[in-house]
Amino acid sequence: MELQDKSINKSTTLIISILLLVGAALRLFHLDYQSLWLDEMHTMLFSNPATSWKDYWKEIGADVHPPLHYTLLRILFQAIAYTSIVARLLSAIAGILSIWAIFLLGREIKDNRLGLFAASITTLNYYAIYYSQEARNYMLSFLLVTLSFIYFIRLLKTLQLKHSIWYGIYTILLLYCHYYAAFIICAQVLTAVIFFLNEEKPNRLLFIKRFLLSGAIVAVGFSPWVRFLSSVTEVKNTWIPLPANSFVVDYFNEYFGNSELLVPVFAGCILIFLVSLFFAPKTNLKIKEKPLLLAFIVCGLWITITYLLPYLRSVTAIPMLYCRYTIVVLPAIIICISFGIVQTKYLILRVALLGFILVESFIDLGFKRDYYTRITKTQFRGMISYVSANYYAGEPVIDEISPIQQQYYFKKYGIQPNILPGTKTAITDEILTPGTSLYNAKSFWIIGGHHERRIDTNRRLLLEQRFERISNAQYYDAWSEYYVAKTDTGLGINYIDYNHVVKSRDGLTNEHEIILRKDSIQFKPQLLTKGKYQFIVSVRGTLANEFYPNLSISANGKKLGDLQIAEGYCIGVFYWETLSDAPISFGISLTNDDADPENNADRDAFIKCIRIKKLK
């Protein structure tokens, strides 16, 4: 059987061109807005072009992902630049090409209209856009699995030699991109068996030859990497949780951004597709000549097998089923949804349904979800930028979870941190224990992210007996704390406490915090040499009438800024420049003093310490 004539007319060309342009804009806009998160920094580490090729292959063989994505990135880094934008650009290009690929897949299954519907949904799909802007292998896997099935279906229909070869090539590439390709191949084998049984007897021998050729191409092409795949199957521990009983529904919701409007509409489209199959007229045509049945068998097995096999291994051996890994089934789901729209009886309903999906997808992406303006990834970039700007050479850094991955950003900002191996608990114990190498440390950093917990309160209180926490920078899912010894550190940091207060009418707490109940306090003049300085205030406050204290900070009578206190200890950083050596006297005023007698609450501030730090 030859391929049906599915020539692309001018209107189809115009529509797919518009979709590609829109898809490119959505995938390239704010490409580097979000910081690289942990896995993306892992990608940067493995694809570092400074690593020798010999060491590269040694390291890449130990990873849980195959090498294609890393290798393509390494080549791009060498050709263009070793940056996060280039890293994400590969995924963005794969995402743009996927719009064209899924059009071809829909066109191969039925016609141009099915392809255009599938391409339209893919263009605005949240999941496809998200992973088109992530420096990982997922969107490249989406593209390659779509190409693999295009040529798989062409081979089923025509048994042509060229389709057998291209199907083998794209399947090899998919295997080198994502190990879930093994489940995809299982689904394709089972599908091929069904089509073989439905094939005319004179063609069965040719059918076997063509698929054996494809299988030989895949086997030979992937054979150098089989030993690394076997090592992955021997993994005994994983961070992946056991899949929930509702994982199919959960994943479906996640593919479409958990949209309250889009998810039920897409589910309804799939239901229409299945009902249409049930009521389809019975004919003597072969499966490959019935687009509805062809889509049901191919996409049904594609989805079912790719879910079922990792699920069974997850519950019997080790968890391996995770939503983003199953992005390789998303093209099949989009085809089923698109077929449901195509099977809608009236043109006006099809247009209205597709129009609603596209408009709601755009609204959900740009307005409800604030995709391009809301920070959603761990802000390692901002946190490390802050640490780098305030780091003194040789200072210990406690980085328990991601000391290796964060090297990309440390190198980007031009520092080589002294990262201590070990856990936060073990290292802070060493800092607190007399006689250890870290006991006399003058300063140190504790940094963390990726849902990492900070040190516990009791341990922090022990540290603060000898150190002052003069920095507590908080970013989205990332944070850094900077501790400096209360003695002279030689770091250009002056420590100011209750001993430097001109007069404190309200006294001190048991922890020697300066109590500020109303009005203001003034500190004794400090002689500062010419230069720029940071004025760092560490303070806490009590709540009254739903508000914490607000402080006004001044130097020599000139206001530097306000510090709005929140729950717990707050760190305020203010700047001052003196053009010559001169004494500086700092003042702190409570601007919103209030009391709540009914609840026995008073709005007070408790100033723990002040640091004056000369900038580099």
Content of β-strand: 15-25%
Overall helicity = 40-55%
Structural class per helix/strand content? alpha+beta
Trace the largest sheet across and list its strands: 2-1-3-5-4
Number of E strands: 18
What is the helix tally? Answer: 21
Quick check: average pLDDT?
Answer: 91
Q: Spans with pLDDT under 50 lasting ≥5 residues?
A: 1-5
Q: Please report the distance between the alpha carbons of the first and last residues.
A: 75 Å
The structural domain count equals 3
Largest sheet: 5 strands, mixed
Based on the model shown, name its key terms.
616 residues, alpha+beta, Jelly Rolls, 3 domains, 5-stranded mixed beta sheet, 5-stranded antiparallel beta sheet, 21 helices, disordered N terminus
Characterize the structure shown:
The protein has 616 residues and is an alpha+beta fold. It has three domains: 10-368, no CATH class; 380-485; 493-614, Galactose-binding domain-like (Jelly Rolls, Sandwich). The chain has helices at residues 10-28, 38-46, 53-60, 68-79, 84-109, 112-124, 126-132, 138-158, 161-177, 181-198, 201-222, 226-233, 247-255, 262-278, 291-316, 330-342, 347-368, 380-389, 407-412, 424-432, 457-463; strands spanning 396-399, 418-420, 443-449, 467-475, 478-485, 493-496, 514-516, 520-522, 526-528, 531-541, 550-555, 558-564, 570-578, 582-584, 586-590, 595-596, 601-602, 605-614. The protein is elongated. The relative contact order is 0.08. Mean pLDDT is 91; it is low at 1-5.
